[in-house]
Amino acid sequence: MKNNPQLIIATNNKGKVEEIQSLLQGLDIALLVPADLGLNIEVIENGTTYAENAMKKAQTLSQASGLTSLADDSGLEVDALNGKPGLQSNRFGPEPYTDTSRRAYLLHKLADSPRPWAARFRATVAIASPERAGITFEGVCPGEIIPDERGENGFGYDPIFQLDGTDHTMAELGLIEKNRFSHRGKAIRKAIPILIEIFGNNLIMDLVQESS
Ligand code: IMP
C-alpha cells in the first residue's frame, strides 16, 4: 500500500489551514497539522520580518516532527497607519484578541483619516526540511479598508478588506476565489515547484517499493 509523503503545516489558525489544504490538494502529499502529531508548540514571533517569523515557525515544527514543514506569516499593512498593524496584525488592539476586536480597533485607529484607506495583505511562506536549507516565498494582495463589514467567509480582517479593482471584500469570496487573489495563494503557488522537488524522490521511492 502506498504511503503518501507527509508535510506538516505549522499553524493552528483554522482559516489558514483550510486555505493551504485547498491550495495543495492537487499534490500527492498527506497534510498534517501540529495536533495530528500531538504537538502543541508556541513559537514566539519576535522576528523583524515576515520571512524571519515564517522560517522560525517552519524550522521549529520541522525539527519537532522530523518532517518537511510549511509555515505562513502574514499581516495587513495600512498606508494611513504607516504600514501598521503589519507584523503585529495578530496582536493588534486590546487583549483578549479576537477577529472582531482587531477589526474594531483598526477602524477606530482609522476614524480620523480621510478615505480611501489603501492597504495590502502580505504573506511569506517558509518551507523547512530536516535535510535542506529553508526557503521563503512572498505574496501581496492590494486593496482598501472599508468601514462597514461585508461577507461571512474567511477570517481576520477579511470582512473589511475590499480587493483592488472589485467591489468585493475578501469575506464575500469563496475559498477557491480567495486563494486565486490572496497574498497566501500567491505565495503558496510560488512554493509548489519546490514542494514537488522535495517530495519528488519520495514519490519515486513509493513507486519502487510498491512494485517490488
Ligand atoms: P500570523 O501570521 O499568525 O502572525 O497572523 C497574521 C494575522 O494577520 C492574522 O491573525 C489575521 O488577523 C491577519 N491576516 C493574515 N492573513 C489574513 C487573511 O487572509 N485574511 C484576514 N486576515 C489575515
Major beta-sheet overview: 6 strands, mixed
One letter per element, helices H and strands E, the order comes to: EHEHEHEEEHH
Please identify the structural class as seen in this structure. Answer: alpha/beta
Mean pLDDT score, rounded?
93
- The percentage helix is 25-40%
Bound molecules: inosinic acid
Using the CA coordinates, give the radius of gyration: 18 Å
- Note the quaternary state here: single chain
In the sheet with the most strands, the strands line up as 2-1-3-4-5-6
- Compute the number of strand runs: 6
The CATH topology is Maf protein
CATH architectural name: Alpha-Beta Complex
Distance between the termini: 12 Å
Low-confidence stretches: none
Instruction: State which percent range the strand residues make up.
Output: 15-25%
Structural domains: how many: 1
Spatial shape:
globular
By CATH reckoning, the class would read Alpha Beta
